[in-house]
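Quick illustration for those who missed Monday's session on complexes.
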Amino acid sequence: MLYIEHLNKWYGNHQAVKDLSLHIPKGDLFGFVGPNGAGKTTTLRIVCGLLKESSGQVVIDQMSRKKDPEKIKRCIGYVPDFFGVYDNFKVWEYMEFYGSLYGINATDCRKLTEDLLALVNLSEKRDEYVDSLSRGMKQRLCVARALLHDPALLVLDEPSSGLDPRARIEMKELLMNLRGMGKTIIISSHILSELSEMCTSIGIMNQGKLVAIGKIEDILHAGAVDDVVILEIRKDMERAVTIIKQMANVDLISVMENEIKIKYPGEDAELNRILIELMQQDVMLHGFHRQEGNLEQMFMQLTGSEEEAS
Ligand SMILES: Nc1ncnc2c1ncn2[C@@H]1O[C@H](COP(=O)(O)OP(=O)(O)O)[C@@H](O)[C@H]1O
Ligand SMILES: [Mg+2]
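Prediction with adenosine-5'-diphosphate bound:
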């Protein structure tokens, strides 16, 4: 659906996006995450055609901006990180105003406005002034506005920033709903945990570079965070510790009353060998489980080192 190919963006002599390439398949809910200043907004604005790239290109549904500028515009809906001020617009007027900009005729637009306001749960606010809405409602209105021309790709820049927890959940539900309707969605955030529950895959950006991309489990598994396994042992503790200490490639992290925490760098087969060794030496294992890779830890590892990233 969306291909970004060797994208670079310079602001004067500052490079905000560095050779960024990625592919987002149709129907994905893709999370674009990175600390402030990583280059997310710059990248999204280039995707939407609001900013010109220095080099590289964006291809959407086999259309490039150079060849099909109008068509490409039609297939993108953009929700910016900053919601403008619209004094004296009522909610329905706001929608119909944008509808007219897209060239939608008045009758269709009225119907569409009602449908979209229902979708974003704002039907009851249709006669209120936009400026009187809460931030969460304004964000949802902005999503409804971005859907007016029925774009295949929806791009949202930090739609949850500044929202209270309830409004965040409503936004998340709305996005998952839209994904269910077949939209391809890109959402950015500087908070990884906000995206991890809803996104099918994520890209982690730091200082203009894409430092990881894929499904969250795969990124975690790719070795960004070592595998930590907890062995539950009720008897034979000392013996187990001695055996583990003798194993190559296994680090003993901690020993508590009934559990041993170990770290091993290898494949799942490696874990099997550890377990077999223990059982062959008659250690009674009461259980074992893998410690879930810590998302925040991974994010810090990937975006932490300034030297590496520059
Ligand atoms: N219009 C601009 N002129 C100069 N530098 C800019 C401009 N917009 C953004 N930058 C710089 O580019 C980098 C990336 O910014 P941005 O894309 O806004 O990142 P993010 O959205 O991830 O916070 C930052 O260092 C920022 O200061
Ligand atoms: Mg930004």
